[in-house]
């Protein structure tokens, strides 16, 4: 099956794929960055430049390029507006959009949240309608008839899409209010307004709780299944990734038996790739 294919860089002459994540605060340990890095490089053809924007770099694999988490000039105004929306600090990811932030950057950036696992070839996402901001439709927002993208996986180019940074920098209070404190709503709406947006197909980026886990009573009878064409599995809400590996009983609706394929893709393959010290 496609998602079980593993790719190693085939030639240093191939174009470099830029991949970025952000780790702010202490909610996620360095192993989340390392496992994401391993999953990405195992599922991209050619060399990878993997960047982590963080203020806590200890324990992150040495092959990961560390980008200090900046404090933006509009940080205080943005956070004051976010506090009203009860989303303090929720839009720090926007710093990644700043043109010139990543030195010597050539081409687009594929970004990931840390609570995802890479399960298949990322080429279809990388090559999807070049020049556009790419995000998957948000599961909950789509059911409500809204066009919001989901921020767990996003492709952008700071050179081609500088407004993603500059609009917030110019009017942080107004933009946070319009987006109701949601970075993914801000990002997808801005790109859609400019005609710069494309949805990542829903079978490539899937939700563990919506697309893998059965509803009661079947979730009590069988473990969550990985959709055949899934390239990225997102763990928004509960269960969290460690909970899904071990089995989760915190909710009758989201009860989950231990997930062997998550243990394999997220932990075991990363351990084999990077060594137990890093994964």
Strand order of the largest sheet: 3-2-1-4-7-6-8
Total number of strands = 10
Secondary structure class reads: alpha/beta
Low-confidence stretches: 1-10
Order of H and E elements: EHEEHEEHEHEHHHEEHHEHH
The shape, in one word, is: globular
Span from first to last CA? 25 Å
Outline the biggest β-sheet.
7 strands, mixed
Residues in β-strands, percent? 15-25%
Quote the average pLDDT: 94
SS summary, helix count: 11
Can you give the helix content as a percent range? 25-40%
Description:
The chain is of the alpha/beta class and 279 residues long. Helices cover 32% and strands 17% of the residues. The strands form 2 sheets. The protein has a 7-stranded mixed β-sheet, sandwiched between helices. It has a 3-stranded mixed β-sheet with strand order 5-10-9. Strand 1, helix 1 and strand 2 form a beta-alpha-beta unit. Helix 2 runs parallel beside helix 6. The N terminus is likely disordered.
């Amino acid at each position: 099956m496609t998602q079980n294919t593993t790719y190693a860089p085939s030639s240093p002459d191939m174009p470099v794929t830029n991949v970025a994540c952000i780790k702010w605060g202490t909610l996620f340990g360095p192993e989340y960055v390392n496992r994401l890095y391993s999953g990405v490089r195992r599922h991209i053809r050619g060399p990878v430049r993997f960047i982590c924007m963080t203020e806590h770099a200890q324990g992150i694999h040495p092959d990961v390029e560390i980008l200090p988490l900046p404090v933006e000039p509009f940080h205080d105004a943005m956070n004051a507006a976010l506090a009203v929306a009860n989303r303090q600090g929720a839009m720090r990811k926007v710093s990644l959009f700043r043109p010139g932030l990543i030195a010597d950057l050539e081409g687009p950036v594929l970004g990931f949240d840390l609570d995802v696992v890479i399960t298949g070839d990322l080429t279809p996402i990388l090559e999807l309608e070049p020049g556009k901001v790419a995000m998957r439709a948000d599961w909950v927002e789509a059911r409500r008839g809204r066009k919001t993208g989901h921020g767990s996986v996003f492709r952008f180019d700071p050179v081609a899409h500088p407004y993603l940074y500059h609009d917030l920098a110019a009017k942080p209070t107004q933009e946070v209010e319009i987006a109701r404190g949601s970075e993914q709503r801000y990002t997808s709406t801005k790109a859609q307004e400019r005609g710069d947006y494309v949805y990542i197909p829903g079978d490539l980026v899937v939700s563990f709780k919506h697309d893998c886990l059965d509803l009661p009573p079947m979730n009590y009878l069988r473990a969550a299944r990985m959709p055949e064409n899934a390239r990225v599995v997102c763990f928004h809400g509960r269960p969290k990734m460690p909970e899904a590996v071990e089995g989760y009983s915190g909710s009758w609706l989201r009860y989950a038996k231990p997930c062997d394929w998550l243990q394999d893709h997220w932990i075991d393959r990363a351990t084999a790739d990077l060594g137990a010290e890093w994964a």
